[in-house]
Design a protein that fits this description.
494 residues; mainly alpha; 80% helix; disordered N terminus
């Protein structure tokens, strides 16, 4: 993990209090160990609740769809409120704390359900789980973009954040190998232990975060002006409503954002379809459920190791190139999924499949975070207001929307073809056809659409540096203008 230190050296700063000092980067990223530890099992819940608690694939798909309807309202509002609070105070911390507490509480009940689980129970706690995750994730991602000013800095900081997330993933997939479990299969007992460990991890990592994380440059001159604007808006409800409409227009007029959104949407939708069925695919189709944790554990270690390499790719060739390579690797993993056969595939094939997939996901995550932060800077320059959290709220919403719609589609297709995860042998051959279609070939088609949009991304490191210089010049003009106004309005006796 030398990447943060390398960027500091390149920028010529040796101050250990620099936002990109390694221990500061780790301090910023460390809560992701806990949040990702708790988020990891969410993609397995469909299989666990269907296999062990008797919920049908159709009812699970309906619950997931309802939770996304809730996110349509909650995600943009959280981004909007976070930006307004940051404009007033220069901080996003209360959102992070509230999100961590709610995530820990909802995870405990979601992963430790009663013996008789109802659809209402599953749906209610799933909504609260996603709400807690969103309250943390959107402000935290926006904070990263405010800490790191330049393209390489953003790639470095988000690489450290990605590495922290992989530590959380690895910690979860170690659980099935603990000696007091009878097998390495992921079962309700695995999730129950995760729900108990999670709150402790949340407490420890958040304490470390508040002790070591850097504070963002709040741009005091711009923040003071924005605070005055938001104070006026608070006194006029009509203006608040108009501001929300204007925010939507800002998204529509930000062409780099629209192109990036066009790439993110089908990419995430394909991932949502694949992740929603991969546990059912490995356990119910290939008959290798005992190997699932091993497959993921090895792949997550590879993903952790790959984060400095992806930073090198992004820093050397640009975030767009890194994104394109990552999308191609994801496409390869989906294609390989469609080629595996029961009785022929084993642990080696599963590891190869997941390593391909995780390499793509690792690179895409780092590149998308960096590109979106650059797009947010472009929006700040073009429209004059920092809406970083609002942009990241769209990203987080896309992530959950894609998992939900992708999950609804894939589960619905598999269920419509007659696939039953509780049966060791499917009654109809068509059932497996539907499963492969929804797990491999339809997601692969969506990835091809995403790749076409990636080719259209025009924002690069050079253009982003120009934007950053213009933002700095604007801030300097604001500062000088305010100083001149204060001096000219001061009485002669000052």
């Amino acid at each position: 993990m030398k990447l943060a230190g390398e960027v500091i050296k390149q920028n010529g700063s040796k101050d250990e209090d620099s936002p990109l000092a390694l221990y500061r980067c780790i301090g910023y990223a460390v809560p992701c160990v806990a949040t990702m530890f708790l988020f990891t099992p969410i993609t397995l819940l469909q299989g666990i609740y269907a296999k062990y608690y008797g919920l049908t694939l159709g009812s699970i798909a309906a619950v997931i769809l309802v939770t996304r309807l809730f996110d349509v309202i909650s995600d943009p509002l959280i981004g909007y409120w976070s930006d307004r609070y940051q404009a007033r105070t220069g901080s996003r911390q209360p959102f992070l704390v509230a999100g961590g507490i709610l995530l820990a509480l909802a995870s405990y009940f979601l992963y430790s359900p009663p013996a008789q689980v109802t659809v209402v129970y599953f749906g209610a706690w799933l909504i609260l789980f996603y709400l807690g995750f969103t309250l943390f994730e959107i402000p935290h991602l926006a904070l990263g973009g405010e800490l790191a000013k330049h393209s390489k800095d953003k790639a470095a900081l988000y690489s450290v954040r990605s590495a922290a997330a992989y530590v959380g993933l690895i910690l979860f997939y170690i659980i099935p190998f603990l000696p007091f479990f009878d097998s390495s299969a992921i079962t309700p007992e695995t999730l129950r232990l995760c729900g108990m460990i999670g709150p402790v991890l949340i407490l420890l990592t958040f304490l470390l975060y508040f002790k070591t994380a850097p504070s963002a440059d709040a741009r005091p001159e711009m923040t003071r002006d924005l605070k005055e604007i938001t104070d006026k808006h608070d006194q006029n409800p009509k203006i608040r409503k108009q501001e929300l409409v204007l925010l939507l227009r800002v998204f529509q007029r930000n062409r780099p954002f629209l192109i990036l959104a066009g790439a993110m949407l089908p990419y995430g939708l394909g991932l949502g379809m694949w992740y929603s069925l991969i546990f059912i695919y490995v356990d119910g189709y290939l008959g290798l459920g005992e190997q699932f944790a091993s497959m993921y554990l090895v792949a997550m270690i590879v993903g952790l190791i790959s984060t400095p390499l992806w930073y090198k790719v992004a820093a050397t060739y640009g975030n767009k190139t890194a994104f394109a390579v990552a999308v191609i690797l994801t496409l390869a993993s989906f294609t390989y999924t469609g080629m595996l056969k029961p009785g022929e595939a084993g642990l080696v094939e599963l590891i190869a499949l997941k390593v391909l997939n995780i390499l793509g996901a690792a690179g895409a995550g780092i590149a998308m975070y960096s590109l979106l932060s650059e797009v947010a800077d472009y929006g700040t320059w073009k429209f004059g207001v920092n809406r970083s959290a609002s942009y990241f709220s769209v990203y987080v919403f896309f992530g959950k929307f894609n998992m939900a719609i992708g999950g609804t589609l894939s589960l619905g297709i598999a269920g419509w073809y007659g696939f039953d995860p509780s049966l060791p042998i499917q009654a109809e051959a068509a059932a497996t056809t539907g499963l492969i279609l929804a797990t491999a070939w339809l997601p692969a088609g969506l990835i091809l659409v995403s790749l076409a949009f990636v080719a259209g991304i025009s924002l690069n490191s050079h253009r982003h540096d120009i934007i950053r210089r213009r933002l700095a010049a604007r801030e300097l003009r604001l500062k000088k203008g305010r100083e001149f106004f204060e001096q000219s309005s001061c009485p002669k006796t000052c």
